[in-house]
Amino acid sequence: MSIAADLLRGHTDTIILARLMDSDNYGYEINKSILQRTGGDYELKEATLYTAFRRLEQAGCISSYWGDEQTGARRRYYSITTAGRDTYNSLISEWKVAKKMIDSLIETEDKQ
Amino acid sequence: MSIAADLLRGHTDTIILARLMDSDNYGYEINKSILQRTGGDYELKEATLYTAFRRLEQAGCISSYWGDEQTGARRRYYSITTAGRDTYNSLISEWKVAKKMIDSLIETEDKQ
DNA sequence: CGATATACCTCATCTGTCAAGGTATATTAT
DNA sequence: ATAATATACCTTGACAGATGAGGTATATCG
User: A16 to chain B: nearest residue by CA?
Assistant: First the structure.
């Protein structure tokens, strides 16, 4: 988890928005789905997760509402907004550019 | 430059070490080679560049010495150490892992 | 002789991450 | 019964990396 943590910095918002593109979801479950997708190798720290929710909501990318569970712990559900979908698409485009850029920058001159 | 800046955060050290793998070089020239490699799209901010040099030198990844120019501004050359080469190789490996991880995390469920 | 390019540097500030703490409910094991 | 674990939310303070803004000095070009 610590290995890749530095390199995933800056992708938190994209990762969360991606999980909300298909359907609304709540924090705990979003993080579990991230853990599952990475085969148990990575999940967001709770503080990072909730900080990102506040940031994304304030930016108008997501909205939230309390679930109506009759039993168990309460859940705050998040829903991606139209602006959030636009942001997500932009972030995906930026990632494609950044990926190529990084690849070209960390290569050495001589390849054998 | 501002678009991809957030996504390149965390790769500064790798980018600099890569430029030193082939030969010693000095700060200003390293940054120009980064600018050239990205077709003018990206270069490190000076403060970022020199902060990274300090960090890398303190970590034992690079060493520095003053050039013996008889004319023009003085140049501080940097040389990658054996430890720096090891670090570089590790960072490259981590990047390969992180790249796949990010790709799998920012995908949406339904692909058409 | 002023502007620009080369070449270095530091300090204060901002932002995102995260360790450490907290609350509350439900289930499972002892 | 009760202790432990899982679910589910939250905040605060500290830290690290990036950066804007400032500085110094030399050489060249118009």
Answer: B106
